[in-house]
Design goal:
Blueprint lengths: L6 H16 L3 H9 L6 H9 L18 H13 L6 H15 L2 H13 L4 E4 L15 E5 L2 E12 L6 E8 L5 E7 L5 E7 L5 E13 L10 H37 L1 E2 L2 E2 L4 H27 L5 H29 L11 H11 L6 H13 L1
Parallel strand pairs: 1-4, 2-4
Antiparallel strand pairs: 2-3, 3-7, 4-5, 6-7, 8-9
Length: 375
């Protein structure tokens, strides 16, 4: 896989960076986050116009049909700007699931709407007792006539309040099959409780009480649920790794500018060798994270499932560790100001911290990496 930016990719990166610098300002982002809004429809429509939401959606369904390399370009820029909007859960993860496992009718109805920004779809697979193990799902899907009746709870649904539909896992009654269903937000018996997360984004808990869905809501076959969900999670991990690398890149830039202007003993802080060494360590960690983001993107084209899981877990753990290091160093190098809400450094630190928890934390991915290596 060639990660040298093509002319089109460079133009897209430049356009995104220009948009973030001029229109998606930090002040506007913080205002949206503090008002409890992680979806600005004006920003969302602009991202759709730029092709961000339909980047990996097949061209037959209104997208651009780009691959993992282009996705890395976009997510890196979104990470630099700490973009709040649900690009990853909808434009990356849900689009990947429906493209790979959706029926023709589901693709025709939902993929063009995702690409245009008209609809938002997110994954709902976590439950209070399952940790990151989707195979332990307790939500049930009872067969009823030509459809199913779903009951149970889902927790920490990423951008759940903004979604128009959920790709939701449930165990089919009378079997060990975990099926994946496309459940509209307005389904009778579906309740949504939204709340903020530490990084300024939003999540939600879902309660399902006898939610009736037709057989056409099933994504693939009942036995395909975990495989279909896995496609979305893998694309999401690769996107998060690229986003984390972009956030670290911007945070190092912000810290360098601060050290260059802040005076101590009549000299800028950047002139002190000890602080230069710490900045160099941050840069090394950022480059390591970016390299592993490339590994994660390359893993999406890996045909061996075991090798793909190994590459993605290694990337997720490495990026999380690098993000924690860069974030902590940035806060410390800003001194007391780094602990306040006045500067953006805290927002970057919170986002980099949260990246470790999303789609499996380091403990989970270290265990998965070990299981793959042992096998």
């Amino acid at each position: 896989m060639d990660f040298t930016y093509s002319e089109e990719q460079q133009m897209l990166a430049d356009s995104l960076r220009r948009f973030i610098d001029t229109e998606y300002t930090f002040e506007a982002r913080r205002k949206s986050a503090r008002q409890g809004e992680s979806l600005d429809r004006g920003v969302w429509n602009k991202l759709a116009e730029m092709g961000v939401l339909g980047l990996t959606v097949p061209a037959d369904f209104g997208g651009f049909g780009e691959g993992a390399a282009s996705q890395l370009v976009v997510q890196r820029e979104l990470g630099r700007g700490l973009v709040l909007e649900p690009v990853t859960p909808s434009g990356v993860m849900a689009a990947a699931v429906l493209s790979a496992h959706g029926s023709d009718a589901q693709k025709q109805e939902w993929l063009p709407a995702i690409a245009s920004g008209e609809r938002i779809v997110t994954l709902a697979y976590l439950e209070p007792t399952t940790r990151y193990r989707p195979e332990s799902a307790r939500a049930s899907a009872e067969r009823s006539g030509d459809g199913y009746v779903i009951s149970g709870t889902k927790s920490v649904v990423w951008h759940g309040a903004a979604a128009d539909a959920y790709l939701l896992t449930a165990r089919v009654s009378g079997s060990n099959e975990i099926a994946l269903f496309l459940v509209p937000r307005d389904s009778k018996g579906l309740g949504v409780t939204a709340y903020p997360t530490i990084d300024g984004l939003r999540a939600a808990d879902l309660s399902l009480q006898n939610v009736a869905v037709p057989a056409s809501a099933l994504v693939g076959q009942p036995a395909d649920g975990l495989a279909a969900l896995g496609v979305g999670l893998e694309h999401g991990i690769a996107a998060l790794c690229a986003e984390g690398a972009g956030a670290m890149e911007k945070l190092i830039q912000i810290t360098g500018e601060y050290l260059g202007t802040r005076q101590q003993f009549g000299k800028p802080l950047a002139s002190f060798q000890a602080l230069q060494h710490r900045m160099a360590d941050m840069l090394v960690q950022k480059e390591l994270a970016l390299s592993m983001a490339y590994v994660a993107a390359q893993a999406l084209d890996e045909t061996d499932p075991a090798a793909r899981r190994r590459m993605l877990s290694a990337a997720k753990v490495t990026v999380a560790r690098a993000g924690r290091f860069v974030g902590q160093q940035a806060v410390q190098l800003h001194g007391g100001m780094g602990m306040t809400d006045e500067l953006s450094v805290g927002d970057y630190f919170k986002r980099l911290t949260m990246l470790d928890q999303l789609l499996g934390d380091s403990d989970y991915h270290l265990q998965r990496f070990g299981e793959v290596m042992e096998a």
